[in-house]
Amino acid sequence: MEWTAPLLADPSLLFGAALLVMLAAILCAIVVSRKLLTSVALTGLFTLVAALWYIAMDAPDVAFTEAVVGGGVSTLILLGSILLTRESAEPVSPSRMVFPAIAVILAGVAILYAVGSIPGFGDPASPANASVGRDYLERTYKEVGIPNVVSAVLASYRGFDTLGETTVVFAAAVGVMLLLGFGERALGDPARRHEALNPDLVEEIDHHVVLRVATKIMIPLMFLFGLYVLFHGEVGAGGGFQAGVILAIALIVHALVFGLSETMRAFPAAAMRAGASAGVLIYAGVGVINMLNGGAFLDYDFLFPPPLEQALSGPDGHAGQHYGIIAIEIGVTATVASGITAIFYGFAGRAPDIASRGASRGPESGGGS
Amino acid sequence: MTQGEILILLALGAPTLSAVLAYVFHRAPDVRDTVIVVCAIVLAFVGWGLFSQTSAGVPPELMVGEPAPGFAIAFRLEPLGALFAAMASGLWALTSLYAIGYMRGAQEQNQTRFYACLSIAMVAVMGVAMAANLFTLFVFYEVLSLSTYPLVAHKGDEASRKAGRIYVGILLGASVTLLLPGLAAIAYFAGSTDFVDGGLLAGTVSPTVASILILLVVFGAAKGAMFPLHGWLPSAMVAPTPVSAMLHAVAVVKTGVFTILKATTYIFGSEVMASAPATDWLVWLASGVIVWASLVAITKPEIKARLAWSTIAQLAYIIGGALIAVERAVTGAALHMLTHGFGKITLFMCAGAIYVATGLTRIEDMRGLGRRMPVVFIAFLVGTLSIMGMPPTGGLWSKFMLIGSAFDAGAPQLAWAMVASSVLAVFYLGPVLLIAMFPAEGAGPPAPFKRAGGAPGLAVAPLAVTAIGAIALFFLAGPAAERLQALWGSL
Amino acid sequence: MIGLEFLNIAPQRFAEQAPALVVVGPLIAACAAVLAPGRRWAWFLCVGASAFAFWMAVVLASEVARQGVISYAMGGFPAPLGIEFRVDALSAMFALLISGMAVLTAVFSGESLETEIMSSKHPLMQGGFLTCLAGLLGLVLTGDAFNAFVFLEISSIGVYAMIAMGGARDRRAYPAAFNYLIMGTIGATFYLIGVGFLYAATGTLNMADIAARIPTLTSDRSIEVGLAFILIGLALKAAVFPLHQWLPAAYSHAPSMIVVFLSATATKASVYLIIRYLSTVFAFDWQVETAFMAFVLAPLSVAGILICSMQAAVDPEIRRILAYSSVAQVGYMTLAIATATSAGVSAALFHLFNHGVMKAALFMAIGGAAIHLKSQRLSDFAGAAKSAPWTMTAFGIAALSLLGAPLTAGFLSKLRLIQSLVAADWGWAAAVIGLSSLIGVFYVGRIFEVVFFRSEPEGGSAVREAPVSILLPLWLLAIANIWFGIDATIPLGLAESAAGAVMGATTLSPAGAP
Amino acid sequence: MIDALATGYVYAIIVAMMMASLFVLLTTGNLIRKMIGLSLFQTTAGLFYIALSKVGGGTAPIIIDAESAVGQARAARLDPAYVEHFGVDGVVYGNPLPHVLILTAIVVGVATLSVGLAIAVRVREAYGDTELDAVRRADAAASEPEPPGPRGRPNA
Amino acid sequence: MLEQAASIAAFVGQGLVLAGAIVTIIGSVGVLRFPDFYTRIHAASVTDTLGAGLIIVGLVLLGGGFFVTVKLLIIWGLILITGPTASHALANAAFTSHVKPLGRGDLRQPSASDEG
Q: Do chains E and C touch (3 or more CB pairs under 8 A)?
């Protein structure tokens, strides 16, 4: 039976279509813009709209992540690196476009050719939606015992992927620490300590009273929210990853307003490095405990020795799964929060170096952040 | 462990030991040289032992291992290989003596590396001679190419490095592009690469396929210096003379033709060879090469270049005999390997002795030297006679058998080419003797010795021995050939 | 079967967990290495964890040999729901190769890092290395298409940064690493899109499950395109011509430790995935696929073999010569795979193993010799054999193996390759391999000539003998090159059983006359 | 094709965006812009996956207890056909699997982005620019004069 | 009685949401049409505070439920803190990088320099 999308019956589809068009328009603007700052701002916008679209597609977890990562961290790092490099890209000569254009068009046509055989958009009977995906929906409550299926799949069914994902963040943090250091340059020279992020901040610090007060109110709230997201992940959208990003952003905001060295005194780079690896250790450690108790790696049913598990969870509870998921989410949070902070330290700590080389930089741009 | 296995292990082990000990004693040249000579002499006895065992009807065998299924490293001596092994090991003993005299006389650098590589080359030659299948043969064939490269590039200057490049480029290039695919194809068609009496491929392949395989083998074994892959041989003459003498008169080039001979005899067999159209083309090519290389030799002013081109011609004899592949031709070819080996090594050693004594390489400069170096030039005369195929040298018999079998097999062009080449040999080797013995009136005094006392005794004695050997073959070759032929079927 | 069974002394309970432990061990060690108080500790951890992974790989391989395919359900959830580690002979072979190389690289890394990277960053380098090791091992063991993507990224992300660390000696490392990052990520994203199509068509991510569902589908279109995207993505990662441009630059400017490890393993792991998709997931019996093999993969391989060999023959920098040669050698493997015969795959795997052994030795020797030499130019290695005889002799042995000289591993693998191509009636391809070997003679000869026969420059060569901790793994590899050239039981056994596992039993024995 | 576009318009737009970002990535010579393109390319791949996961009339895959008031209200609002066919306790949920995958992919994306930008910063420090053309020019200029130190004879 | 209250609440809620939407649109138009940076910030912050505020209050009336109300109010509170702070930071940054506000006679001239 041919499936047709019930555009009118499901308003989210209509909403989604509108957002999609918006996304396409933003992308067109990115393609033609040459100012890097504009491109970055538009990219941030793109990811935020994409996050909205994810909500329309019933994927709040993804939307949450996309918003904090794409709209938050990515944009921030991009801005930081623009600050460290240059402001606008050089135009591309049309002759250089020929080959990429052909390649891109070929690939596009290939995909469209394939898309023709994919079941219609939104078809509940499509193979993608009807097979394993549905199994998760039916079995999660029985086997894992938490309502947020995405969290269950993420942390339990495909917990190994998530361990991998955490490791990727860890590896990226290690990579950035290798390449850009730990921001030690910001601490190294007391005379320039406050210039670390933005030279303007030092001379004009009095203008920022409002900012500092507001930030002082906000940062504890952000921490609190981060923890809420972490522990709320089982029942609603959220989880360790989003929580980690929020915590990291709280630190970054602190650094932006109070200066990198202040932040680094409270949260030293060495601690961030330790946190990043500790997170992965916690995650993998949970798996190892499962193995020691006789289960497979990351089989949280064996988080506790079988008798204890029975005692804790009663007839049909899932104590092992609950505690296991929380434990690994804490690990993810630790790695992500510390890892992203370490990455930020790396970028932010690089600024004096560039400045001291007398690299030519255009006038500071006012708006944007 | 049977006696044969011990002999095979000794044949490989003695030169290996020699290479290792050369490095161990590299600080004490006297000890090193003594050890090398001792090893060489041991090997000569082993070589003789192998030959006598084979001719007594108990061919030594040894299975080492099978690195890949169907490709075994195994050794087994049949008469042809035993003959080659005996010849190579015997001549090596003499060459190592000669090499010591030459290297010390010429004060060459890097002597330890030289001896070590020479010894490894000998390991390879023994391996080739004793190989029980084409795979083993190929393995040692390549080892030979690689181990002789440092010998060719020995001097380390631009000219010798360039020669080394050409050398290794052609030899390795041909073997990996032609011989290796040929080997794989043979293994694919026959299931193994063993040398089998009457031919491994007999009755399994069509003439077309056989032709392709024959072409792959004949040109792949570029050590046989078949046109157009002959270029390495003249250019390798930059190497020190013992190398030219041992390797480029005996070991390397003979390994090339030996490979072809073994392949035509034991892989293809006379029937396949006779049915394949490629045989005819190659016989024509060989005939052409015999005449052409002899003509080129006449134009060369340098004595070693002349000898090299002569070698190209002589190798074509053996290849021609191998291509005809009937019993008599193969025997003749095998015998020619032997007689040419003795003759040509004598000539090279003479050239080396002249170089050590006077520093001369061009023939026109050698006027009157015959009077001052009588032993050397008498030996040179013997070598010349052997190459021409004149009595009282063994060259007579081998040429005789080759020419005769060529006529029998319906390849008169090959026979006539051989005859012509014998005549041409007078023109390219004769002048050396003429100029040295009977210098033109008023040509000036002979060149002075560069080194007090002329060529060292260690460099002269071996060439005298090989010259005597070449004459002795006149008497021994006939019986030896008959014995070979008689044994042919019994194995 | 593999000759290393004597190492299989783990208790049964340990052996059951081996598939997870082989990945988790290095992963935990990576975190610990980053936390390590000093570079010595990090180095010990690195060696220890690699050795542990190797031990587990041996246990795994012998278990596979004993009982066939091992399936390990991560998290205790059965296959299509959870992530499955599916270990067959093919995976086991790669796990052995990767972890074995890791042990040698780890030993090598101690002294090598000393001269190349500031010492405060050693723990990070070791941590990154171990992460990469865990990623590669996971990549070859997993039976889940998406999990493979994650491992692809784990094994790459740290590596990009570590390649860029070569910039302290030569700033060209930075753009090289950047290029690699872009290409690698495009490759990974293509792979991701391809997996998306497979998922859209079949609704599952487990490779075996996908393979089981493909025959039941009515429309092939998204499978075709999915396959195309996966293969292009993996070809980018495996540096298959013409998608190889990132590799020479990345290999020639990275720190030695990274090059040694990557040259022996990284592109190989992607080749593994290519084989896995072509054989296990698509089972070689699919029209589009066979057309692809014969008309796309084979010509590209041939072009890659010839063009990159020639580039190697003219390049002035020694590491880039070897890097170009690596691309050519990948071409050999894909060419043999393109025959879609069991013999071809077996020959490709055999060559892959041997190539890992020889290239690691080559790069290791250069890394060891070049501790005191900042330059990469071939001409600066003039007469190196005199000043560093041990290092350069090992280098020479490995170079001979690369050339395919008899009595070395390279020879046997070339022989197998030619044999398998002849058996598949691809005589022309065998000729191509011969031709490229001929070019190989030139570029290896060039290196040889400079290293062994050119006199040292005025004032002596800057090349010095490598320290013992480098000579040890180096000579181990050099001896392995000879050993596997004489007795190839181990690699051949691995390759044959691996090919047998994905292709059915090998049909080619030399007696397999038509 | 027309049919395909009618139901697959979402895919068509996503594919176009995918290719547009790939185009940015391939054409530009600016490292930062390349990273922007790469990041967008990965995001659009995510859009593709999430489009696969949409179930018409569905809701987020967070299981609603059917007994609760919210659960009953939802079931009442839905088309009975869905409920009968695919409802889980009377509620249709989106497919959670692609969500999980893309969560992972987003994280991988930001990790790649940070490492790539870090390398770009180092390129800028080493070369003074982040345009690949400038980098190439600098490299060519550096390799043109013979490097100091001993050089072998001209050969090879 | 209760039903009536509910329907009134719903009516008022819808009205508030609509009003918020209108305010937001006006704000957006302002961002596009106002001549210089500082006036544009002003328009943008109207969107932030008033528009978002109206919508949230409207949603509180529409959504019912205790937890939803609390959450919405927290969100409003956050917007009330962050919105003005962000506007302030923008204006401050513009000021420190010497972006001059338009003077009395400048309105006629199009300004291209201050597109943020």
A: no
